[in-house]
Specification:
InterPro entries: HTH_LacI, LacI/GalR-like_sensor, Lambda_DNA-bd_dom_sf, Peripla_BP_I. One of its GO terms (molecular function) is DNA-binding transcription factor activity. This is LacI family transcriptional regulator. Keywords: DNA-binding, Transcription, Transcription regulation. Pfam families: LacI, Peripla_BP_3. This protein is of the alpha/beta class and 346 residues long. The protein has 3 domains: 51 residues, 434 Repressor (Amino-terminal Domain) (Orthogonal Bundle), CATH 1.10.260; 128 residues, Response regulator (Rossmann fold); 131 residues, 3-Layer(aba) Sandwich (Rossmann fold). The chain has 12 helices and 11 strands. The strands form 3 sheets. The protein has a 5-stranded parallel sheet, with helices on both faces. Helix 5 packs across helix 12. It starts with 12 loop residues before the first helix and ends in a 10-residue tail after the last strand. The relative contact order is 0.13.
Length: 346
């Protein structure tokens, strides 16, 4: 008779979760005495699976689940970028309300740095790890991150991604394609037809989603953006400046330029001025994010406004409180039209 009891000590929490058909986080909370409530039917399934497999709970995991670990690890792209800073501010506010301490790692976009930072953070047994970096379009990058993050979930820690999460993880998705498409629609309504896109690094999923959304919106209206007018560049002020400089040096002078982040758009405006032109009058400019520093930008920048602090708060909530699979509605942005995209004359 098969009693489903592997050799003593060989059964992991992952085995129990798989047997019960639940996430690692739910299995940990069911067995390790978490303060967060697990539905009774799930708790019984997990406990029954543990009994069949002969699983013995890890004492350190119990301490984590009960909240003895009061830290939250945050992996973010660039703390100097106002976009990440605003999300981090929301996380910090929410963590403070829960009496948790936040540890941050600013890692840029290199996968090696992301994985190395995860390994270091994991060693401190944080109660949750929040991934606010842009995922790469290469699936292999997700696999490397998942290996480290599975180890976090194995001891009972929570994990959540900003944006669409890899298979098996939860997150706070953002409707980047729809948001950028809505921006294109409103700019078309202002009379813009001849456009260019500063698309950011092609390997970053967030930048690609925003660019695709805008390009699709223009194409549907019969105004496709030629490949020569889709320029890659770093997601920074200097990246936007360099990309815009290259565009103007090619002899191209579009009616409007869309940059996939506000900081790139600010750089593009500086490049336009350096060429002796005026943003908004000679070349219209639009961005994405609605970062706080736009209050000091002239002309006011048209953009897609995201509730960045609220996204940070939701991210922590999902990582700590999700027991139902992490289903959450994608965040929709709001198009904000300002002086950088005046209505074009007929």
């Amino acid at each position: 008779m098969n009693r489903e009891r592997p050799t003593s000590g060989s059964v992991t929490l992952s085995d129990v979760a798989a047997r019960a058909g639940v996430s690692l986080a739910t299995a940990s909370r069911a067995l390790n005495g978490s303060e967060r409530v697990v539905r009774p039917e799930l708790r019984e399934r997990v406990r029954a699976a543990a009994e069949r497999l002969g699983y013995t709970a890890n004492q350190q995991a119990q301490a984590v689940a009960r909240g003895a670990t009061r830290t939250v690890g945050v992996v973010l792209g660039d703390i100097a970028d106002p976009y990440f800073a605003a999300v981090a501010a929301g996380i910090t506010e929410a963590a403070g309300e829960r009496q948790l301490v936040v540890t941050m790692a600013s890692v840029g976009v290199e996968v090696d740095r992301v994985v190395d930072s995860l390994s270091v953070l994991r060693g401190g047994r944080p109660r949750a790890v929040l991934m606010t970096v842009s995922r790469h379009t290469d699936p292999a990058a997700d696999g490397r991150m998942a290996t480290e993050l599975d180890r976090v979930r194995a001891y009972g820690g929570g994990v959540a991604f900003l944006g669409d999460a890899p298979d098996g993880f939860v997150g706070v998705p953002v409707a980047h394609r729809a948001n950028a498409g809505a921006l294109a629609e409103q700019l078309l309504g202002l009379g813009y037809r001849d456009t260019a896109v500063l698309a950011g690094p092609a390997e970053l999923l967030t930048a690609a989603e925003r660019a695709i959304g805008f390009l699709t919106g223009m194409e549907k209206a019969g105004c496709p953006v030629p490949p020569a007018r889709q320029l890659a560049g770093a997601l920074s002020r200097d990246g936007g400046f360099d990309a815009m400089t290259r565009l103007l040096a090619s002899g191209t002078r579009p009616e409007l330029v869309f940059a996939v982040t506000d900081v790139m758009a600010v750089g593009a405006m500086a490049a336009i001025r350096s060429a002796g032109l005026e943003p908004g009058r000679d070349i219209a400019v639009a961005g994405y994010d609605d970062i706080e520093m736009l209050q000091d930008v002239t002309p006011g920048l048209t953009t897609v406004s995201l509730p960045l602090r609220d996204i940070g708060r939701r991210l922590l909530d999902v990582a700590l409180d999700d027991d139902t699979g992490g289903a959450t509605e994608p965040v929709r942005g709001t198009v904000v039209l300002r002086d950088s995209t005046p209505r074009r004359r007929a």
